[in-house]
Amino acid sequence: MVEILVDVFIISFIYVLPIVVFIKYLGNTNCKNYLKFFFIIIYVVGIILTSSFMDNLFPFIFVVLSVLILRIDGYKDDYNIYNFSPRKTNFIRAFEYFILFYVINIAVVIIFQWVFSKFNVAGQQQEIVKDMENMRLFALIRYVPVSVIFAPILEEFIFRFVLFEKIFKNKIGVYLGCIVSSILFSILHYNLEAFPVLFALAVENCYLIHKKGFWYSVLNHSLFNFITVASILADKIK
């Protein structure tokens, strides 16, 4: 039952929400209804065709298209406020934030591993991490862009921009909105052992998008994933 609920949760946020947001944005560009229907068909068919080897490709593509739509007049305020233009991002500064937050994340992992051991809570690796460990080297290399590029951009747009900034912040405030969206993000990954560090990552990225801009949160997320993938790659190459 719990796994079914998690699957519904994943479908809702990772697969349904990107196309809903895209169609909403497209609606303000005087796009004809038949074109909206065409995009929906392309989206659904694309997900079906790529589900066996790159399941978040089309949600990622439609998130990128949504970001491009933000550049038009009706949405330019959001595009500028959240620094969606990479040219407005100081990537050296963003990397410094990543180093700071990664140290914090390590501390969070150590503290909660101690807490879990004290209460005899059995932890398990994330399902996706176990899947990557069981992949052949070529398959794992092919998965790198999914983990390091597609997932961070997709998830930061949905959880930090759409849910935190555009929905929860306006309804329940910055702090509570940050907590709720971070809990939802952590639940998405369905792993008790990883929950604390994923929650910490989500809170960090709420701060980054709110204070610095979209690409700061994306880079923090991307490098976080990259270290995990790189460590698994290194073990396979040995």
Write a structural description.
This protein has about 240 residues and is an all-alpha fold. It contains ten helices and no strands. It folds into two domains: about 1-80, no CATH class; about 90-238, no CATH class. It has helices at about 1-25, 35-50, 55-70, 75-80, 90-120, 125-135, 135-170, 175-190, 195-210, 215-235. Helix 1 (about 1-25) packs across helix 7. The longest helix is centred in the middle third of the chain and has 36 residues, at about 135-170. The relative contact order is 0.13.
Any chance you could write out the topology, listing elements then pairs?
Elements: H1 2-27, H2 33-50, H3 57-69, H4 76-81, H5 91-118, H6 127-134, H7 137-172, H8 174-188, H9 195-211, H10 214-237
Helix pairs in contact: 1-2, 1-3, 1-7, 2-3, 3-7, 5-9, 5-10, 7-8, 7-9, 7-10, 8-9, 9-10
List keywords for this structure.
mainly alpha, 238 residues, 10 helices, 2 domains
Radius of gyration from the alpha-carbon trace, in angstroms = 18 Å
Give the terminus-to-terminus CA distance. 40 Å
Number of strands: 0
Proportion in helices: over 70%
Total number of distinct structural domains: 2
Average pLDDT works out at: 92
Structural class: mainly alpha
Which series of helices and strands comes N to C?
HHHHHHHHHH
